[in-house]
Amino acid sequence: MHRFLEGKAFGHSPDPRQTLGEYLLAWLAAQELRLKPTTLARYRAYINQDLIPALGHIPLDDLAYEHIDAYARAELAAGRGRGRVTVHRILATLSSALGAAVLRHRLGHNPAKPAVIPRPPTPERRIWTPDEAVRFLDYAHDHDPLFANLVELVINTGMRKGEALGLHWDDVHLDEGVLFVRYTLSAVDNRYTILMAPKTQSSLSWIAINDRARRALEDQADHHFLGLAIPAHGYVFQRHGRPLDPHYVLNHFHKLCDQAGVPRIAVHDLRHLATTLALNGGVPFVIVSKTLRHRTLSTTANIYSHLTRQAAREAVDAIARVLDSAERALRATQRADRPRNLIAQFRDHLTNRQRRTRHERPAHAPIPL
User: Fold this and answer.
1) DSSP strand E in the chain: where?
2) Model pTM?
3) Which domain holds residue 341?
4) Is the predicted pLDDT of residue 369 greater than 50, yes or no?
5) What CA–CA distance (Å, rounded) separates 147 from 143?
6) 178-180 and 206-208 beta bridge pairing
């Protein structure tokens, strides 16, 4: 009875007639208190719009790897905007749900494993050069100061887009040169925005601000409060008291990119630009990782592997330079201490002999005939 009740709580039914669609809906309902609203919305969309229409009629006990493989192939062949990345995410959601059924002994194995579609490689990011960043900021300061200040803050702190959009004035401490990341602003179902806790526990932390970030925040305060004291509440980046919608931010950012004559990039790529500038400026990798508030150093290394390869090359080159320098010093010492070769010794012997002969000969000795 205990296992039965536990299974019901997690959407698991011992009824052999339970379909995959029924199971997925019950599993999704059980996740409402466990998942972030954005993650829950994504799972709901995959289940209601993709998995149930295609596979929902199959009894859960009869679901096989072949069903999932056929679904994936059909989706990729049909197109409809379903690329490998999207299909992989849909199947990952299915695998997560079926994994819960295995964990609760509802299924003997997970038919979605091994993955039908391997995790697609992360596409190479296009990062602005410093010149492109300055060109954008110069244009934006003249035509849209709000976005100029937003971009300036993200580049100079490495904040995530949602963290910058969710920033409140009471978390900004200009006198101390720091700000506190307390919230992140996210869009749910492209319908409404929600203020949530940051991505990870390590993200909930203080961030140092440099002079450029300070000027951006002061300029933002001047635009909204006419130079008066910064209030103790309210969003830093807002229009008429409302925070900026994340989708609007991306679309308007791309519009400004076109007008400024710089390549379009994602707003999140500004965080990668901050990392690139810091690493290329010689900031130690561990300090950059702490600045980004990654949970582990390996997270930073995995995301910025293209930069770690360059850092690795510089590291081994530095090792070689140190060893080469020590080797040259050793050889110089050895040359100074090494006995001279026989030819040099014989030459010195002849020179010394000639000197002794001159000293022993009388000054006016007669020349023998």
Assistant:
1) 172-173, 178-180, 184-188, 192-196, 206-208, 238-239, 242-243
2) 0.68
3) 308-359
4) no
5) 9
6) antiparallel
